[in-house]
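Table S2 (continued). Query chain:
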Amino acid sequence: MAAPRIVLDAMGGDDAPAAPVAGAIEALRDLNVELTLVGPTSTVEAELAAHRSSVRPRIVEAPEVIGMAESPVQAVRAKMRSSMVVGVALVAHGEADAFVTAGNTGAAMAAAVFGLKRIEGIDRPAMAIPFPTREGACLLLDVGANAEARAQDLVQFALMGSVYAEHVLGLRDPRVGLLNIGEEESKGSLIVQEAHQKLRAAPIRFVGNVEGKDIPTGVADVVVMDGFVGNVLIKFAEGVTTAFAGLIRAELRASPLTSLLALPLMPAFARVRRRIDYAEWGGAPLLGVNGVVIIGHGRSNARAIRSAIRVAAEAVEQGVVARIRDGVMGGSKLES
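Corresponding output:
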C-alpha cells in the first residue's frame, strides 16, 4: 500500500509554525507517510531551514492564516487562500488523503464541511477523542462539533464511533454507551431517552446508559453525547489531571525523605503520564465528512503534531471514511 499522503497546516496552533514544522520532521523520520506543509512558503521554508533536517516535506503556498480567535465561518469564507482552506481543498481534489491542523477548531470544522461535504446519510459530523481508561482507551464523541444533538444524531455518532474504535483503535466489537445521569432507561432528557431506544435497535453493541464516573473504569469502548457536554467533560478531565499531577509532584517534593522514597516510583509515574498525555493520543478525528480530518489541541507541541499525523495515517490505511459510508448505506442503518 502506498504511503498515506498527509497535509499539515503549518500555521495552525498556538506555537505555529515552530511546532507543526518540528512535528512534521519527526513524522517524516518515524512514519511511513508523504507529507505536505501548507502555509506562507517563505515562513515555512525559514522554519525548515532552522532544523537543518535531511528530510523535507513538500510545501504548498497558502498566504493567509486563520487566527485562533476569528469567527470560524466568516474566516473560512473570507480567507479562501488560508492554510486551512487550501489544505482541505487538496484532500477534496484527491491530491492528499488526510488533513491535520491544530488551528481554530471551529474554522477547521467549517472548512471540512464546506470543502469535503458530509457523508450521505450523516446529518452532523462529530469530533471524537480517545480518553484513557483503566482498560486502555474509550472513544468519546461528540466533543465539540455540535452544542446540541437530536436523538438520531446520537445514533449516528454511535455508529461512526463504533467503526472508528474497531478499525483505528483496534477494539474488536466495541461496546457503545450513552452518557446519562443514571443507568435506567427512564433517566435523562427526552432526547436522551429517545436516543436510548433507537440505540437498542441500532447495528452496534449497545451496552446502555453510562454515567460520567463509569468512563475512566472502561465499562464502554465508545461513549456518545452532545458536543456541549462532551467538550465540558474533556476540559474538566484535563484540568483535574493537571491539578492532581501537580499535587502529587508537590507532595513528593515536600521533604528530602519523600523525594528519596519517590525515586523508585518515577518509571511508573512516567508510564502513567504517557497514558494520559494528550500529546500521545494526537488529535480528534472529525467523523462524518468525506475525507480524513484530524483536529489537534491548540497548544499542541511537536510530539502531539507527530501523533496527530500518525492518527491520520492510520485512519487512511483503515479506510475509515469508506467504512462509515458503508455502515450508513448498508440497509438504512441510520433511520431517523
